[in-house]
Amino acid sequence: ADQGYHRGAACGEYAPYGGGCSDDFQALARDLGLTSYDNLFEAIYKTDSHPAEYDTEENYPSSPGEIPLSQAGSLFLITSFVFSSILFESKLPQPKMSIFPDHAKLVQHFIGVEGPTGIGGEEPGVIDSVLAIGLWLEHNNRFVSGPLEDEDFLQHLQTLSLLSANNPSPTLRYAAHVFTSSILHAHPVDR
User: Fold this and answer.
1) C-alpha closest to that of 55 among 44, 39, 68, 69
2) How far is CA 53 from CA 21, 61, 77, in A?
3) Is the pLDDT of residue 115 over 60?
């Protein structure tokens, strides 16, 4: 009776093979208004501080729209949407991004925030998402959109190199190494 179906861990329901959970996830995200890349990137780069847990009750959000989105959660949604559009051929458009300046800005925001000595110690899911987006951009030859300063190029390369050297996960180290090498060999001056 279960032939051709699997029990989806995330869905909790029987779904036909081929991404039933992904479809459910995207439908839920769409219903909650979380499919706009502009809103997700805005949540990532928002500089306002989130209200503290011990704040007074009158400062609590009074509607769902007032609840701030998680920065890492927004990154995970973007990564999920990108790869659902590839693996499951979902109808969501892919974000308009390039390695420079967009991915470099993501790396700056999530990797090495505590300084160069902390690079590689970030949450594995965050590192995985940042590298996955970067490798997707590299695979699609989306290197530069706009001017590229040598300082920005070298800073991005240094951060990724430290990530490839310091991360405890061999898989993430390898992904960072491949991505760093691809950026180094694709430098616009060398083309």
Assistant:
1) 68
2) 32, 11, 24
3) yes
